[in-house]
Automatic annotation (TrEMBL), chain A:
Residues forming coiled coils: none
Biological classification of the source: Bacteria, Bacillati, Actinomycetota, Actinomycetes, Streptosporangiales
GO cellular component: plasma membrane
UniProt source species: Acrocarpospora phusangensis
Record's protein name: ABC transporter
Record family assignment: Belongs to the ABC transporter superfamily.
Residues in ABC transporter domain copies: 4-238
Compartments reported by the entry: Cell membrane
A GO term, aspect molecular function: ATP hydrolysis activity
Keywords, comma-separated and alphabetical: Amino-acid transport, ATP-binding, Cell membrane, Membrane, Nucleotide-binding, Transport
Pfam family for this entry, one: ABC_tran
InterPro entries documented for this protein: AAA+_ATPase, ABC_ATPase_HisP-typ, ABC_transporter-like_ATP-bd, ABC_transporter-like_CS, MetN_ABC_transporter-like, P-loop_NTPase
UniProtKB/TrEMBL annotation, chain B:
Single GO cellular component term: ATP-binding cassette (ABC) transporter complex
Membrane topology type: Multi-pass membrane protein
Location(s), subcellular: Cell membrane
MF terms in GO: transmembrane transporter activity
Keyword Kinase among record annotations: no
Family per record: Belongs to the binding-protein-dependent transport system permease family. HisMQ subfamily.
Name assigned to this protein: ABC transporter permease
């Protein structure tokens, strides 16, 4: 049974159709990488899954519940989906610890002591144990992005969406963030990543999806998409 | 494994030069200030009307006799300010938040808040003092306040809340939309997003303009004199009427300055600190 099912989703901004009937199923523990040119609709698809955008047609199901149902409560659904953006979006007026514990405390009703213990455990696991009391502007880009991932994890989401989490980082910092994602895959987290890091996508993904102008042109295991792409548009994107 | 740092001769020489430059700057600032003050004072004293002005505006005797009464009146100004300020802060933030509500059920509230800020920012404070101070008692409503100080405070609150609400609203709108998106994506409701993420950041940004509004509120407490309570300006007027000497006004002015100048310096300090923080980030 699929954890997430995307069924014929359309999204348009004014006259410009950004998603044109996208279909996709994601199994539990599966890691899906979205690749495609800039403007192909990767971020828009992730934002639709997280209900930050309303779809114009089609439906999205999480655990067989239709989350695009207009009667569904978006706040309740977002509790089950974590998202990390390209720019870190940490809350600048809160310490790292408060950034991480805010949603567990206020949304999930976890006691402050328990939320803090869990946050410290996550920080230690990802090599940031000494940064709990620090404010985000005192962290490097890679550290900020790792905190953003931890913040999304702290609510124990069913599904984690990562939108080009390394594209604002310089190459030496990319690896520390990719390391975090690798570890999450090992722990069984279901993830959808939009990325321009092809070698990383090949390495970590169970499924690669190639988006072109809002259409899911081709998808399959990394070896198939990268080595023997069937669609001419995929070939052109990968080999120029 | 850090090596102890012993300042090199080059660094010591550099610091000596910086200190010398600092001393020169202080000297230059002092000299030019003294020259400007001396010239200004000389011009005033040499003017033909000076002896008469000194007599009517700068009379030491009049200052000493009127000062206790003016000071007592001034305490009423401070009282009005202390009551009005917290009310204005709370209501101003409330109006700003109401204007940010998007759900259709809140339309009437939102429209009322917009109408309120539009209207009350347009009415001169002095007019509002008259309208509230004489209009409300004339209605002869059961339970409506009739005491002039209360009426004055109500008028000031009505006027300043509309300004402060706009200050808060601009602060709220200056928080980047990605902050809201990040909060909502963590599952926080609209209310929680405002309470924990948006408003704390907005408030930090609007402290300097808010203090600016409060400096002007401190002065405008004198307008309550129009309704008759014995605050600083009213006390000064009484003394002036008795003696035909205007020095009591000077006494009142000095008291207002004593209150607003520290506030202005504090505002500058906060603005400078905010600018430094932005520079760091
Ligand atoms: N709020 C919006 N209003 C109008 N157009 C938008 C909006 N958001 C995105 N678009 C458009 O939708 C298209 C797809 O954008 P999207 O951000 O999904 O692309 P992307 O695949 O994530 O690209 P990138 O790799 O550069 O991040 C773009 O042409 C963009 O201009
Ligand atoms: Mg994008």
């Amino acid at each position: 049974m699929a954890l997430l099912t995307i069924d014929g989703v359309w999204k348009r901004y004014q006259d410009h159709a950004v998603l044109r009937g996208v279909d996709l199923a994601v199994a539990p523990h599966e890691v899906v990488c979205l690749i495609g040119a800039s403007g192909s609709g990767k971020s828009t698809l992730l934002r639709c899954i997280n209900l930050l955008e309303t779809v114009d047609d089609g439906a999205i199901y999480l655990d067989d519940q239709e989350i695009t149902d207009v009667r569904a409560d978006p706040d309740e659904i977002r509790k089950r989906i974590g998202i990390v953006f390209q720019a870190y979006n940490l809350f600048p007026h809160m310490t790292v610890l408060d950034n991480i514990t805010l949603a567990p405390r206020k949304v999930h009703g976890v006691t402050p002591a328990q939320a803090e213990a869990q946050a410290r455990e996550l920080l230690a696991r990802f090599g940031l144990a000494d940064k709990a009391a620090t404010y985000p502007d005192r962290l490097s880009g890679g550290q900020q992005q790792r905190v953003a991932i931890i913040r999304a994890l702290a609510t124990n989401p069913r599904l984690l969406l990562l939108d080009e989490v390394t594209s604002a980082l310089d190459p030496t910092l990319v690896n520390e963030v990719l390391g975090v994602i690798r570890e999450l895959k090992q722990s069984g987290m279901t993830m959808i990543l939009a990325t321009h890091e092809m070698s990383f996508a090949r390495d970590i993904a169970d499924t690669i999806c190639f988006l072109d102008q809002g259409t899911l042109v081709e998808h399959g295991p990394p070896a198939q998409i990268f080595d023997t792409p069937q669609n001419p548009r995929t070939r052109e994107f990968l080999y120029g | 494994m850090s090596v102890d740092w012993i300042k090199s001769d080059r660094q010591l020489a550099r610091e000596a030069l910086l200190r010398a430059r600092g001393r020169r700057s202080v000297t230059a600032a002092t000299t030019s200030t003294v020259i400007v003050v001396v010239v200004a004072v000389a011009l005033i004293i040499a003017s033909p009307g000076w002896p008469r002005v000194r007599e009517t505006f700068f009379s030491w005797d009049a200052l000493v006799t009127s000062f206790p009464d003016v000071l007592r009146g001034f305490l009423l100004n401070v009282f009005i300010f202390m009551i009005a300020e917290p009310i204005i802060l709370v209501l101003g933030l409330g109006v700003a938040l109401v204007r940010g509500l998007r759900a259709p059920v809140f339309f009437p509230l939102r429209a009322a808040a917009t109408l309120y800020t539009d209207i009350f920012r347009g009415i001169p404070v002095i007019l509002l003092i008259y309208l509230v101070g004489f209009g409300v008692p004339a209605l002869q409503l059961q339970g409506a306040p009739s005491d002039p100080v209360t009426l004055g405070i109500i008028a000031l609150v009505l006027s300043y809340t509309s300004y402060v609400a706009e200050v808060f609203r601009s602060g709220i709108e200056s928080v980047h939309p990605s902050q809201r998106a990040a909060a909502r994506s963590l599952g926080l409701s609209h209310g929680q997003t405002m309470r924990y993420v948006v408003v704390p950041q907005a408030v930090r940004r609007v402290v300097p303009p808010l203090l600016n509004d409060f400096a002007s509120l401190q002065k405008d407490t004198a307008l309550v004199a129009l309704l008759g309570p014995l605050e600083a300006l009213r006390q000064a007027q009484i003394h002036v009427a008795k003696t035909f000497n205007y020095t009591p006004y000077l006494a009142a002015a000095l008291l207002f300055i004593a209150l607003t100048v520290p506030m202005a310096r504090f505002t500058d300090h906060l603005a400078a600190r905010a600018a430094r923080q932005r520079g760091d980030g």
